Amino acid sequence: MNIGRPAASCRALALLACCALQAAAVRAADIPLFEDDSLLEIELKGPLSSIIDDRSEREERPFVLVLDAVEWNVQVRLRGHSRSRREVCIFPPLRLRFENAAGLFEGQKKLKLVTHCQNSDRGDAEVMEEYAAYRLFNLLSQVSFRVRPLRITYTDTDGRLSARARQRFGFVIEPAKQLERRSGGSLLELSGVSLAALDPDQAALVYVFQYLIGNTDWSLVTSTGKEYCCHNGLLLGIDGRVHYVPYDFDLAGLVNTRYAKPHSSLRLRSVRIRRYRGFCTEPETLLAAIRSVSKQEDAALDIMRTAPALSEKDRAKGIDYLSRFFEKARDENRLLVEFDRKCLDPRTGK
User: Whole-number mean pLDDT of the chain?
Assistant: First the structure.
């Protein structure tokens, strides 16, 4: 008469697991900051010149973030390791740390703030073009970093910030832990990843997306001097497969920052020249990815049309750059041949 008990127990365990997944989904959905992509007008008040002056330090300093007359106390410090950006950019990228934030920033602890490089309209355009690149990948995959655009008024309590830096554009990036919860996956720290371990559909979308935006500053191998894979990408385990999630697009041809240069090994004159950098993979999988990207042509061009801070010239240049990919992708077989010729050996990454 006890035959039914194991089945009942299994059903109970399955129900608990389902409830846990639903709770995690609710917690991710309850975080409001990245549920909208409208422009936020914020003020960031604090000793900004002290942070900019101490570029070798990572010391946090107290700031106040103001939005719609509501204030949040935040700790702010420098972030980022890009030597090229440090050498060229006037303004550094920042990290914001919240404590028990409520309202729009509820659920946030540490946020990466992507800032302008130069105190100029072109500096604003570059950061918003990188924002657009994140939005483009959002079109293709839910397993992607969400972003929120900002117009930031910087109030320097040191009183030394250039007037040209006092109101600029930027954006914040969804933290990895929130992406982990939202996707139902788990963050992975691996020294390397094989083609067999990768989710084939996500990987192929990444390959085509990076080609779309003209980005060669990424790879599926571990960077020199780094312990874990991969360069400018995060690894998530979902349903037994490894998902590569790309980030950092400031060196992409779509953005074309003043410090962007192709790696010398690629022998490219400019980052505006596209080069396929994906693993050699099944043509059917790659063709499906090309078609998935091509289906988003109108939405992709709309992102460039509506991105904040772009001049008509910058907007037209971005639309033209993307349109040239979509025109090329209409000849699917020709594009597949190009990808096959330039694809990387999964065993060596070369």
Answer: 90
